[in-house]
Amino acid sequence: MTPDSLPQDTPLPRRAGAYTFAALFAVESFVRALNSTVVSLQAYDILGAAQKVSVLSTGVSVAVLVSTLFLPHILGRTPRRWAYMMGIAMMMAASLALASHMVAGQALGMLLRNLGAAVLNITLQLYILDHIRRVDLARTEPLRLSLSTFSWMTGPALGVWLYVNYGPWAPQALAIVSAGALFTLFLILRPSDSVTGQVAVNPGAFSALSNVRRFSAQPRLRLAWLIAFGRSCFWTTFFIYGPLLLVEAGLPKTLGGIMISASQAVLLTAWFSGRFARIHGVRTVIALSFAACSLTSLTAGLAGTASPYLAIGSLLLGSVAASALDGVGGIPFLRAVHHHERQRMAAVYRTYIDCSELIPAFIFAFALLWLPIGSVFVILAVALMIVGGVAWRYLPKSL
Predict the structure, then answer these.
(1) Fewer CB within 10 Å of terminal CB in the chain, N or C?
(2) Is pTM, for the whole model, over 0.85?
(3) CA–CA dist 169, 100 (Å, integer)
(4) What is the pLDDT of residues 143-189, one digit of tens each?
(5) What is the pLDDT of residue 16?
(6) Residue 235 and residue 365: Cα distance in Å, rounded?
(7) Rg (CA), the chain
(8) Among 137, 185, 171, 120, which residue's Cα sits nearest to residue 18?
(9) Pick from 139, 175, 364: nearest CA to 273
């Protein structure tokens, strides 16, 4: 059924506004933020070495990557509201597994947490593409990131504080309660599954490999994926190895949580990156931000455990540039994806998160066999400079 075939007296569903998705994203971010630092510190406590944490992260990321490619097969047969609620349920189950404080529970919890985040991320992107006009993305995307600032400012430090002072169950209990609040908020706001009068499902033939081939055949989508992959590599490395660097330097675990929370305070600057992009172009913001992230990562890596406070300062400066990437880095994909391919291409695009956890962790697992933990940030710096150069070279000036 199309809008033209609807009865004349049947109104089309109301488009949800930017604040609807900003509110959902803010609460979802708090659920994820509570465990953002706890996951790596708990894995380190259980396994006893940063190199072993990298091996575990690599294994989990492989499983998540393969699963993500098959999500359109599930989401294409599920009403979008049910898919979103399924993602919330997976986040709750992840917290229950992580609370066990065992190797099996740690692995299962990391897997469910990442899969739940994937479902929520893909579903929310599809909602945004349905409800927000493309010309408004440079304004609404930074707004969404900025309103999640409180979640990321408080969540990591609070999660670590609960973990250190009250044990593994404490942060997971709060995460489950917060996921319940997200479920309630979604039922209250409940954006329409479709603003065209059609149910937002896409049944039919499915092939994960064909989706990847179709995505790879479009240069603009490949470039959008690379940009998203680069910015996610910074945050993944920062969130996992930043706190571990401080622990190996002999500093308290709670300082790692405080560092992560402090880095998220600058998410408010994502709003300014949106304004700057509207004046000077998205390409300029992306290229300059990658250059700044690369320089600060290099400084942090060279400082290492010998100068942990210099490393902290460098990473915090890098988070300012990374927040600018968060604000506008998703725009190349949102403007490039074709309307009829949104669901399938969104699932492939979402693999940048899984690959940013898989590929660096795989490389770092080998590097940490011979090199100190600061080496991971030096390797990151080189990768970010390459991605920034590619973005500057191939992004259109008119973007």
Answers:
(1) N
(2) no
(3) 8
(4) 677 677 788 888 888 999 999 999 999 999 999 999 999 999 888 87
(5) 56
(6) 18
(7) 20
(8) 137
(9) 139
- Cα 227 to the center of its chain, rounded Å: 13
One-letter amino acid of 281: G
Two tokens, residue 100: 């066990």
Residue the block writes with tokens 């070495």: 49
Token digits of residue 45: 């406590």
In one-letter notation, the amino acid at residue 57 is: S
Does 139 or 324 have the greater pLDDT score?
Answer: 324
Written as six digits, the tokens of 29 are 């971010």
Q: What are the Cα distances from residue 328, in Å, to 126, 146, 164, 274?
A: 17, 12, 36, 6
Residue 58: its pLDDT value, please? Answer: 85
Enumerate helices (H) and strands (E) in the chain, giving the number of each. 19, 0
Average pLDDT over residues 44-72: 84
How many other C-beta atoms lie within 10 A of the C-beta of residue 351?
A: 22
- DSSP output for 318-333: HHHHHHHHHHHTTHHH
Torsion of CA 313, 314, 319, 320, to 10 degrees: 80
Report residue 302 as tokens: 């060279």
The number of C-alpha atoms within 13 Å of 91 and in the hemisphere containing its C-beta is 34
Decide: helix, strand or coil at residue 76: coil
Residue 367: which region, alpha, beta or left (left: phi > 0; alpha: psi -120 to 50)?
A: alpha
Beta carbons within 8 Å of 58's beta carbon, 6+ residues apart: 358, 361, 362, 365
Q: Tally the residues of the chain.
A: 399
Residue ranges of alpha helices (H) inside 148-248 are: 149-166, 169-189, 208-216, 219-248
Using the predicted structure, report yes or no on whether residue 399 has a pLDDT greater than 70. Answer: no
Residues 5-51: tens digit of each pLDDT = 444 444 444 555 666 777 888 899 899 989 988 998 899 999 988 88
Residue burial 196-207, b: 16+ Cβ < 10 Å; e: rest: ebeebbbeeeee
In which residue are the tokens 């075939």 written? 5
How many other CB atoms are found less than 10 A from the CB of residue 279? 8
Judged against a pLDDT cut of 70, whether residue 142 lies above it is answered with no
Q: When comparing pLDDT for 16 and 369, which is higher?
A: 369
Q: Please state, as a whole number, how many other Cβ atoms lie within 10 Å of the Cβ of residue 51.
A: 15
Do the Cβ atoms of 151 and 268 come closer than 8 Å? no
Could you tell me if 399 and 332 are in contact, meaning their C-beta atoms sit under 8 angstroms apart? yes
